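User: Please predict the structure of the protein below. I'd like the answer in structure-token form so I can feed it into my own downstream comparison script.

Assistant: Understood. Taking the following sequence of 418 residues as input:
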Amino acid sequence: MYNQGAVEGAANTESGSRVFVYEVVGLRQSEETAQINYPIRKSGSVFIRVPYNRMNQEMRRITRLGGTIVSIQPMSSLQANGTSTSAAFANNKGDGNATPVSTTSDKKGNTMTQAQPKKGAKANVPVNIYRPNNPYIGKCISNEPLVGENGIGIVQHIKFDISGGDLKYVEGQSIGIIPPGVDKNGKPEKLRLYSIASTRHGDDVDDKTVSLCVRQLEYKHPESGETVYGVCSTYLCHLEPGADVKITGPVGKEMLLPDDPDAKVIMMATGTGIAPMRTYLWRMFKDAERAANPEYQFKGFAWLIFGVPTTPNILYKEELEEIQQKYADNFRLTYAISREQKNPQGGRMYIQDRVAEHADELWQLIKDEKTHTYICGLRGMEGGIDEALSAAAAKEGVNWSDYQKQLKKAHRWHVETY
């Protein structure tokens, strides 16, 4: 996340009373951090130990990297309050890369997530088996279109062979892809993170593959008006079977599925945010997966609310509807098709409109301590979801904002948006 090696090394030579802890959010990848072995996302707090004589210098450095200092505390006060340094800082294998150990919100209240062990999470969840300086070389097995005829954009389901290495992962994690070539500054391309779309056993349930759901990024340049295509997404969407690909990871513990087979799971996704939801549904309901996991036989309830622009853009439509038909008592499927359906106000039907439509029912589910809620996709949907659930909670005199904080603290509210 942030290369704290030089600063922290100096800090460790200082007495506790002369060392300060900066809590920083919003750090971005830049030329200065290009060699850091941890992928940058919208992330949680990074905690940096800074000696007194380098405080101003470090403030300038953080500003250059786009970061915002949330708080500054003397190390001695943290220790006096019983906060151990091991709890406040985590180094991956001693490589000098700071890893955030909390989930926080920015000043606008936007939830920002990063790999954080959940209460009760298995200790053996794999993380960073392969790093950018030594990626795994996988091979593309297949690259299949997911958008139907007359749909919008290009979205591909891409399967990679990982049988020749040690790459293991679990549902809800991500992997990094390093595209070939150099960027506009002549530097090697940086990795991009993608949510994994297959269970830990892979699409073939043989522990030899990993799959991604990738949309080709396409937008108009704000000044020239030219169409710009995303470097890595374009590379992946046009990858030929047999081609090698550099893979890193896995990363992430925020979106892990609970082990409880009686859990209730609410899933809200837009577009390729369906990727982790597919892994959950396969693990819960696919016959081959259930056979491969005799210790986990899902008997709970799952509800997916999936937002897309058109019917041809319903990714994995046949899979979803097959599960719905076969497990009608355990799985509920709700679409929000923005360009074909209307909300009660006559506007386009977005996922937040569907949440508002079912807010009272969702609220009753969310109150159940066995319920976990997962949100993945466009960040813009979060506000509408909160608004709808606020109205439902208010009917019982509950402040949704406060209640949501309790859910996050209990690790029952999981968000990965962009």
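That's the full token string. The chain has twelve helices and 21 strands.
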